[in-house]
Write a structure and sequence with these properties.
The chain has about 650 residues and is of the alpha+beta class. It contains 17 helices and 25 strands. The protein has a domain at about 340-595: Dipeptide-binding Protein, Domain 3 (Dipeptide-binding Protein, domain 3, Roll), CATH 3.10.105.
Length: about 650
């Protein structure tokens, strides 16, 4: 059975600003919403449990059928006959000093969550958000939507051979929402009132109120071993591995430099339909680099196998040489359909300097995307014009109908223009347009109390308009430089600085910056994760993703409308309203995105491309579904599917 309702969109494209301390595409994204769950051959579905109402048919809130039926043998985008041998080495930007991915302190090594730990359910990458059973083989949602019960797969085992039980699930939830774990978990699962072990195989989660997505996102709970951890200081447990039930175990660690995993021969789920054809490498190594250009040269020298490029200039100019000409290294732009989300120069509105919306709009007007795309990016990008760019969730036109009904009660808290005209991201077509934008920016700054005195922008108290743009990668300085030039034309005293990755992460966790580059990736069906990105409660909570410091009751109301939307139509409407409120408040200077993963690899690997998954993270796709075809680099014709590579160059 195939999915009849695919959705389009994709994750933020490159800026070269990979998330510090994590694999370039192996970081775990927060879940989206809504799924199908059915059971047979490892697929979740309706079941009968004592005291629990039966869900009506297959559980779904979107109204379309799952792509796979109860006879699931494997996902369509994997090769079930893939060789299960060989090794893979990939690069990671940054450093690491911890093996515990579930706490705020430290930088966890790549792979410590998604290679070591299984979850109750797993997603299918060719559907917007459908999940299928892994540690749990059945699920039951109560008729009133106020509880969900999971039945554990009797074959599920931790790495030491002990069964994964309902008590382990309860322990995992209580640990992750406790004070010792990263605060994102208790925030994300804030609507869960508690967990109850019904019997050794059944565990029930009770909800504070009905939430259309909550039973699905709790299904992605990583399950820890109660026996191994109940007497351990969880917050301080960082230098030795945590035991999970996943397909790999740690084989070798050089803190800050590299970490190697070995596939478990006794992995309990290797023959399940949701795992068949996946995790095919016997060993996986993550090698850390603090400079992306150095990492690329290391790749071309054969130090690791696959490079996910996030820099347009390097993609256009650096992928040349004998290895490429002989076909020993392949490169491709591989399309995907992920929601683009939003990426931008984020202003920290906790700083008084950025508290005025007119000031923020002025800083937005100073950025000349078209010039940058032509002269810096080789024409490879599209402009982010929405927090849900390139998806049906992006706001267009002016609010009407149900969206207007959502926004109308908050009219006195919103800009008047929001109701009168569409929001426009500044887009200068030529130098004259850019000059007009700078004149408008100057007018807005003056209106907000900032005037140029002797070439310097000052307020009535004589204070300079001065701030710093914090960066994590040296290569990003060339992108910021022309923006800084435009700001200086307005009299802004702006500087930019690249700092050590570990320090960068600490300062981001504490919101200790003026402006920085960040992205807000979105799923095909956003939900609870929006609270952590934009909600007022997260504005001052250390470690949250509300980097801008948004503390806005209308944003909060629109987030709640998204989370508690009863159907897809209501969800889309609420996302339009949220998008519009965020855009009109000018919290960041929108950047750009690309609709393909730019990949290069030594020609000794295979992957299933008929079909490609629609919604996927580049390196998760490599780690989970590729296989090694030959131990040595092969030769052959050059494979280069990049078209118009030098467009605009």
């Amino acid at each position: 059975m195939r999915n009849k309702h695919p959705k389009s969109g994709y994750l933020p494209g490159d800026t070269g600003q990979a998330r510090p301390g994590s694999a370039r595409s192996t970081g775990v994204a927060l879940p989206g919403r809504r799924a199908f769950l059915c059971h047979a051959g490892g697929v979740l579905g309706a079941c009968f449990l004592p005291g629990v109402a039966r869900a009506a048919g297959f559980a779904t809130a979107l109204g379309y059928e799952p792509a796979y039926d109860a006879e699931l043998a494997h996902f369509d985008y994997v090769n079930p006959e893939a060789p299960r041998d060989g090794e893979l080495a990939v690069s990671v930007f940054g450093t690491f000093d911890s093996l515990n991915p579930f706490v705020l302190k430290g930088l966890a090594a790549a792979g410590t969550e998604n290679l070591l730990f299984d979850t109750l359910v797993v997603r299918a990458w060719d559907e917007p958000f459908s999940t299928y059973g892994l540690l749990a083989d059945r699920m039951e949602l109560a008729d009133d939507g106020l509880s969900v019960t999971f039945r554990m797969n009797p074959d599920a085992r931790f790495a030491d051979g002990t069964p994964v039980s309902a008590r382990d699930v309860a322990f995992s939830f209580e640990t992750l929402v406790g004070e010792d774990a990263h605060p994102r978990y208790r925030h994300y699962w804030g609507d869960i009132e508690g967990v109850t072990v019904v019997d050794p195989r059944h565990v029930r989660f009770d909800f504070r109120r009905s939430n259309p997505e909550l039973h699905l996102i709790i299904g992605e709970l990583p399950v820890l071993s109660r026996r191994a951890l109940e007497s351990v200081d969880f917050a301080g447990h960082s230098r030795s591995p945590l035991m999970g039930s996943g397909p790999y175990e740690i084989e070798q660690i050089n803190f800050g430099r590299d970490i190697r995993y070995r596939r478990r021969d006794d992995y309990w789920a290797k023959d399940l339909g949701v795992r068949r054809g996946m995790f095919n490498f016997r060993r996986v190594t993550f090698k850390y680099y603090k400079d992306e250009t150095v990492a690329l040269e290391a790749f071309k020298a054969g130090e690791f196998d696959v490079f996910h490029e996030t820099n347009s200039k390097r993609w256009a100019r650096a992928y040349r040489g004998q290895a490429f000409e002989e076909g020993r290294i392949r490169r491709r732009e591989i399309p995907h359909h992920n929601n683009a989300g939003m990426q931008g120069f984020a202003m920290n509105v906790r700083r008084p300097l950025f508290s005025d919306r007119r000031v923020r709009r002025a800083l937005n007007l100073a950025f000349d995307f078209r010039w940058s795309n032509t002269h810096l990016f080789y024409g490879q990008y599209s402009r982010c014009d929405s927090y849900f760019a390139n998806s049906e969730l992006a706001a267009t036109g002016v609010p009407e109908g149900p969206e207007l009904e959502l926004l109308e009660p908050h009219r006195d808290q919103l800009p008047t223009e929001l109701f009168e005209r569409p929001h426009e991201v500044p887009d200068a077509a030529d130098p004259e347009d850019q000059r007009a934008q700078l004149i408008e920016a100057q007018r807005l700054l003056a209106e907000a109390g900032w005037e140029v005195v002797d070439g310097v922008l000052r307020n009535a108290a004589g204070e300079r308009f001065s701030f710093e743009i914090m960066l994590a990668q040296k290569g990003f300085e060339r992108i910021v430089a022309p923006y800084a030039y435009s700001l200086r034309r307005l009299g802004v005293d702006v500087s930019y600085r690249t700092i050590d990755v570990a320090l960068y992460q600490r300062r981001m966790n504490r919101f200790d910056f003026d402006m920085t580059v960040t992205s807000f990736g979105q799923s095909q069906s956003p939900g609870n994760e929006l609270r952590d990105m934009f909600g007022s409660e997260a504005a001052d909570r250390e470690g949250s993703r509300n980097y801008c410091g948004i503390d806005n009751p209308v944003v909060d109301a629109m987030i709640e409308a998204v989370i508690y939307a009863e159907d897809r139509k209501a969800l889309v409407t609420a996302c339009h309203a949220l998008d519009r409120v965020l855009l009109w408040n000018e919290y960041l200077v929108p950047n750009w995105y690309i609709g393909a993963h730019r990949m290069a690899w030594w020609n000794r690997f295979g992957y299933h491309d008929q079909p490609l998954p629609r919604y996927y993270s580049a390196m998760d796709w490599v780690l989970q579904t590729w296989w090694q075809t030959h131990p040595e680099a092969q030769t052959g014709p050059v494979v280069n599917d990049v078209t118009d590579l030098l467009k605009g160059g």
